[in-house]
Write a structure and sequence with these properties.
Number of strands: 0
Radius of gyration: 15 Å
Order of helices and strands: HHHH
Helix content: over 70%
Structural class: mainly alpha
Number of domains: 1
Largest sheet: none
Shape: globular
Number of helices: 4
Length: 122
């Protein structure tokens, strides 16, 4: 793997982490829970664990910016594992939250990949 390849992988991993953190920060703000580092970390850790699992399952370092299968595997892992971990720790997993989390993370995690794809075509 070249130095440029390593940079692309690191940038893609960082973009995914930022997307999850943004999702969690917006959620905390919309529920008036406050945006603190500890608060966002508490909300984000299950989803970040899911994102990490998705990276490993998809072997995302091979093609980190592709929508399918990489982006889809990461997105589904983020939601499914995140919700399972929230349920295991008695955090909220109401159906409305699952729907909003699924849609929001799809827009964020898949959206940046679509944007990168469009830029690459230019």
């Amino acid at each position: 793997m070249t130095r440029d390849d390593r940079r692309a992988v690191a940038a893609a991993a960082a973009a995914d982490a930022v997307c999850v953190l943004v999702f969690c920060a917006i959620g905390r703000r919309s529920h008036a829970e406050g945006i603190t580092v500890a608060g966002v970390a508490e909300t984000a850790w299950p989803f970040l664990a899911g994102t990490t699992f998705g990276w490993l399952a998809a072997r995302a370092w091979r093609r980190p910016t592709t929508l399918a299968p990489t982006g889809i595997v990461i997105w589904l892992s983020t939601v499914v594992i995140g919700m399972l971990l929230r349920k295991a720790t008695s955090a909220g997993t109401a159906l409305s939250f699952v729907v909003v989390a699924s849609l929001s993370t799809a827009i964020l995690l898949l959206g940046w990949r679509l944007g990168a794809r469009a830029l690459a075509r230019r």
